[in-house]
Amino acid sequence: MENSPGRTPAAVRLRPWSPDDLWLLRRTNAPEMTEHLGGPESEQALLDRHARYQRIGGDDGRMYAVLLEETGEVAGSIGFWGITWQDEPVFETGWGVLPEFQGRGVAVAAARAVTAQAAAQGTRRRLHAFPKVRHTASNAVCRKAGFALMGECDFEYPKGNPIRCNDWRTELDAPRG
């Protein structure tokens, strides 16, 4: 469960991804953290991902470390990036919360915070998340963070690996410009 009954959800803040966050990427690459994502990546794939995370910005999106507001501890990562979905430019989001911080509402709070960041870009109307249909925890995060379930869909993650997902969507402010 993402948020136990009677427990106040965690307050978090997002810090842009930095060169010092490679350790976090390695921690979220553990088998238990990548079970629904096709399994752990190689060290070279992690180094490549880390470099991409540092470059992403502007209309391309942004990656963040998720910090607990109260203690400043790094609890996980989240981000958003531009994709084309059903012929529409949208943002996609994804997250990983370290095992010792799971079940405390961290992912829900981070998903709400990243939604605000994506909306502040002002360039896309929607933010989507695509957790596997059977990934109970991530689907619960989407629901609790205010995303609407659009239905099941076929998706590729990682590239070349077809999976069955739920398409969750939240509306962002209308694009400016």
UniProtKB/TrEMBL annotation:
Residues 12-175 form the N-acetyltransferase domain. The keyword Kinase does not apply. The keyword Acyltransferase applies. Transmembrane segments: none annotated. SUPFAM superfamilies: Acyl-CoA N-acyltransferases (Nat) (SSF55729). Keywords: Acyltransferase, Transferase. One of its GO terms (molecular function) is protein-N-terminal-alanine acetyltransferase activity. GO terms for cellular component: cytoplasm. Belongs to the acetyltransferase family. RimJ subfamily. This is Protein N-acetyltransferase, RimJ/RimL family. It comes from Actinacidiphila rubida.
